[in-house]
Fold each of these.
Amino acid sequence: MTAVADRSLGPDLDLVDTISADTDVLVIGLVSGDDGPTIATLEDEFVDNILAPEVRAALQEQLRAVGAKGKAEELTRIPAPTGLDVKSVLAVGLGAADKIDAEQIRRSAGVAGRALTGVGLAVTTLSGLEGGIGPTAEGFFLGAYTFTAFKSESADGKPDEQPVHKVELLVGDPSVSYRKGFNHDWVIAESIATARDFVNTPPSHLYPAEFATRAKALAEAAGLQVEVLDEQALADGGYGGVLGVGKGSSRQPRLVRLTYNGGAKKVALIGKGITFDTGGISIKPAANMENMTSDMAGAAAVIAATVAAAKLELPVTVIATVPMAENMPSATAQRPGDVLTQYGGKTVEVLNTDAEGRLILADAIVRAGEDDPEYLIDVATLTGAQMVALGTRTPGVMGTDDFRDRVARLSRLAGENGWAMPLPTELRADLNSKVADLANVASHRWGGMLSAAIFLKEFVPEGVQWAHLDVAGPAYNTGGPFGYIGKGGTGVPVRTLVSVIEDIAHEDAAE
Ligand code: BES
Ligand code: MN
Ligand code: ZN
């Protein structure tokens, strides 16, 4: 395990077997029940014994006295009872005992992590829950995530507004037994924070060339091979989709290719990298247009997941193909009615310049297909229709039947909620164009998420196992914080992608 987590992205984490003397806050889990809440009994007996029976009884009594119920993600903070050498105790609800799973632990640790603002050192017993170490690490790390790159010192320098500095996870034997799982989930949390950072960086500062430069630096630091196609290379290569979408902007498009050579099996990842989507000449309304800074979230997740695969040394080859462009209206922008030639030769009539994601993805999918991958996954904030169909927290998963179902299942196991959606064959005819091979939108708005996927399907090579994730809503949180997710970039679907790559890595073992 060469993985070293990047501490600049979140709090420091460590595994310990005692409560350090200078600990500020002890975070414990509280389980709801008919006879009132109880302090979570831990799988790891050693950790359970850290709270002496009388301390535990006093804690439980005090928590009940102040009205704690143990409801999922409820927070109750009380002074430490005598006999417990910390300044205060933060009890976080876990809900009913029979419903506690990895995602619940992650969410509860997340709300605790958010509540620990201004705290120096916290220690937690959540890591003693069954399977709790990884989710606890991830929940605290991501809950404490903040994006302050554009806040001046005076705004964010106050110590009481800083995220928790360090969280110690109580375990039975911190020396060996849990290290591997702990590092694994920490690397994933770090990758999620990386994806969030990309998404949260405003479009003034993250435009295609800059995005490519940052992706290259990140990937090279992890030992990946990197290739960046600039506008000239894109023109020479015939990437008509990326060029068509990018030509309205003074900031030229890019296509980034990252290769992690980990083994014989090959997975292609493709991510939509629209650094800002105004809609182009088919311009969007002003209200909420600023949220279109998130239109490169697919690209961010794909880059972060590819780097994670390398850091985790997964025995699979992962090749990311990431098209980046800014969709702007201008005298040089493409027009509704223009016809462009995608990479590979298919022609597309651009009826709506706001359906730009599919145009850059089509080029990238064809290019990715040339590497002969067994699996191809594309990720995109592709349609508003995704949110109409599934809401803001459920990614739509489409593609070839078996792989689509596998990806959706793994996404749910990972706590990212992917849901399988169909590709009804009758919708294909609605993409027929009178002048080109294909139109980029249908003449009606029904099944908009599916119609976009059906467009992409035209470019997926025969015989490849394909999954398309539409994360328009889930990748970017415009509402209040919840669980381990704050406002802005969420990092979805990094965890799904890493889980799928791991599942592919291990599939031979199961056969
Ligand atoms: N980037 C948008 C999709 C989107 C909408 C993402 C809201 C996140 C939040 C995409 O490029 C787009 O504009 N899609 C159009 C497609 C339509 C023109 C067929 C849409 O959904 O309205
Ligand atoms: Mn658009
Ligand atoms: Zn878009």
Note: Residues 179-200 form the longest helix (22 residues).
Amino acid sequence: MPDLLGLRGVAGEQILAWIRHARAMQEILQRPVAKVPALRGRRIALMFFENSTRTRMSFELAAKSLGADVLNFSASGSSLAKGETILDTAKTISALGADCMVVRDGHSQMPAYLSQHLEEPVINAGDGTNEHPTQALLDLCVLAQLWQGRFEDRLLVIVGDVARSRVARSHLWAARALGHRVRLVGPRQFFEPGLVEAFGCELTSDLDAGLRGADAVMALRVQKERRQQGGPWLSSQLDYFRTYGLTRARLQQHGEAVPLLHPGPVNRAMELAPDLLYDADRSQIQTQVQTGVALRMAVLYWALGGSDEQIVERVHAGT
Ligand code: CP
């Protein structure tokens, strides 16, 4: 059974296949009864050891839209508080009959570690500062729509806390596979040494220079919880917003219609001006959340052995 632990080493054809499958799933979600029995009788375990709103809820909705049952695990209120380990928790959920494990954890590589000890496929729902593959894939679904399916020569500008961002890392791996350019913009202290060499991306600390020529702009959340409050990493929230905050005026200098993405959750008035958040002309944020359900349906179906042809057959058969 396949795992989805990250986009590192994943071929462009596989990424494009997930995007294509997600489109078929979107068709299911638009029906009056937005449900098919493709995974009826299968059990998807949602194992979230770190907080989440959109990833968790969209995986749950994705599983239920495919007719699967959901085993919901939350760290708070669980036997972790009595000293049970994450591996023993996963083994317990496996014994309850889970067919697939969706794992979020604050530690990088926890999904990879669990996959070494479990028979069931493991899907990474975000691990520490490593990767968040389904977030990057859903963003790529949105970009595929905006860019008419052509990635080559497009420029995705990612602004913000790059070093701590698992979303940025998944995007950097995906860009290597799909052939689009990525330019990272942020304060120098947010960059890791070796990024340019590892990924062939562009890097600048000048936001206005960084936005030039962008085909899409993605702001990243400043990971306040992963940095020491009041430490030397940032002088102040206001200072960050003045230097790196995206505003309508700033984006307008670089093309009237450049689309704006953010994986969420947003620190208002830090990464984005609040009036941009739901700006119908630019903001893709609600579309990203909606697309997450279809993309996660495609990934769950793939992880449990479905094929493209089967999805298309079921969509057309109305089952
Ligand atoms: N983008 C994202 O992972 O959001 P959640 O933390 O709410 O799941």
Note: Residues 52-56, 126, 132, 135, 263-265 surround phosphoric acid mono(formamide)ester (CB under 6 Å).
